[in-house]
Each structure stands twice: as C-alpha cells, then as structure tokens.
Amino acid sequence: EDQVTQSPEALRLQEGESSSLNCSYTVSGLRGLFWYRQDPGKGPEFLFTLYSAGEEKEKERLKATLTKKESFLHITAPKPEDSATYLCAVSSRKDSGYALNFGKGTSLLVTP
Amino acid sequence: GAVVSQHPSWVICKSGTSVKIECRSLDFQATTMFWYRQFPKQSLMLMATSNEGSKATYEQGVEKDKFLINHASLTLSTLTVTSAHPEDSSFYICSARDRRGKETQYFGPGTRLLVL
After folding, report:
1. Position B101 pLDDT exceeds 70
2. What is the rounded CA–CA span in Å between residue A92 and residue B101?
3. Count of A–B CB contacts within 8 Å?
4. Average pLDDT for chain A
5. Which of B4, B1, B8, B3 has its CA nearest to residue B79?
C-alpha cells in the first residue's frame, strides 16, 4: 500500500534559520511527488512537482529535491510569511484512476 | 494560471437541508476533478473523483447518496450534501487536473460547512 510520511510534525524556526522538511514515501510506480503549502482555512497552494530521482526545483526560498525513497523541502533564510503547513503527496493508483495520497503535513512557524 | 474557484466559501445551514458547492477551473479545462474533506489539524481525505461526462467514483466509506457529485462540463463540478447533519460539518476542498496531461492537481480555496 502506498504511504507518505512527513517529518517533523511541527517545526519552529527563527527568521533566517535554514532547515529542511522530510517526506518519505513508498509507492508502486511513482507518477509524481507533489509539495503544497496550506495556510489556515485555505486550500492547498501548489509549489512543486517532481517526477524522477535526482530532480530538483526551486522557487524563491524553497528548493525541493527527490530521491528514490524521500523528498526534501529546503527552506533557506525563512521569513515569517513562510509560516504554513507544508503537505507532501504522491500520485497513487485508485479505482478511479490516479489520485493524490497526502502525508499529514509539517506545520512550520517562523518567528521574527 | 491554473486557478480553481469554489462557491460558496462558507455556509451555515439547518439540519436536514441540502447544500450545493460549486468548483470551477477558471483558466484551464479539467477532465478530472476531485473532492476532499479536511477535519481540523488533519490532512486531506479524498472523497471522490469525478470525470467529465461520467459518474463519480467514491472512496470507500463515502456515501454516494449523501454526497452527490456532478461534473457537467470541463470547467465545473458540483458537490451536493443532501439532508445535512451536524456530523457533515467540515472543510470541503475541490481540486482539478488539467486535461493537457500531467498529474498536478490545483486546489480551490475550500468551503467551510457548518450544520446546526
């Protein structure tokens, strides 16, 4: 069965203190690994899609990397506005086709 | 690009009434749309997958007669919560996948439902 495990559950950083969020996955036939950001009371906002091991993508202070077993979301010099829950998901086979299987998320708090 | 809207953003209704939630892809066509439910402090739980022009496929444990899904066009899907009860109160989020391929789903802003 496909599984997605995110760690840590919660992370508190000082502004400017770089760190990484982890997403470990097991899936039969990876069709994509996805990172989303979710603010309280809002829908997830798309960040990155990674398709194969070794792939990296960057956007502002965020960089996502992918290996055969896990993905990392690196946050460089975070700012308070980066505070949010970061969700990782893999595309899993369902009866209806392919759908996203989400981890429980990492809640990030960046303090000034 | 890749904007998905939902309407309404929040709704309060009495127990026993039905509530319809709309999900629209504004700048792309979506052959597949998804409906999720999210409880406080928890991740997204897939309820159903809807493909344009065909019946929705529901996940195990989701009552298809309670949660009616219609995907009438390439840009619109609706979720109707029939005879709503307090336990149906939740945050409902839709997503859409671009028909031009790739697996990425783009999410709407969500609808907060409170059943009294």
Report:
1. no
2. 16
3. 64
4. 94
5. B8
Q: 3-class DSSP state for residue B62?
A: coil
Give the torsion sign (CA, A21, A25, A30, A36): negative
Residue A34 to residue B104, Cβ atoms within 8 A: yes
Residue linked to tokens 């969500």: B110
Contact of A3 with chain B, judged by CB distance below 8 Å, is answered with: no
Burial class for B34, CB neighbours closer than 10 Å (0-12, 13-18, 19+): buried
Q: Which amino acid is at A48?
A: F
Element (H, E) at A26: strand A19-26
Which residues from chain B sit within 8 angstroms of residue A55, using beta carbons?
none
Q: Which of A48, A7, A46, A1 is nearest to A24 (CA)?
A: A7
Q: Residue A2's pLDDT is what?
A: 82
pLDDT grade for B72, boundaries at 50, 70 and 90 = confident
Contact A43 B109 (CB under 8 A): yes
The answer, yes or no, to whether residue B114 has pLDDT greater than 80, is yes
CA distance B47 to A51: 25
- What's the one-letter identity of residue B94? C
Pick from B4, B103, B105: which is nearest to A31 by CB? B103
Residues 6+ apart with CB under 8 A from A111: A12, A13, A14, A15, A80
- The encoded tokens of residue B110 equal 């969500």
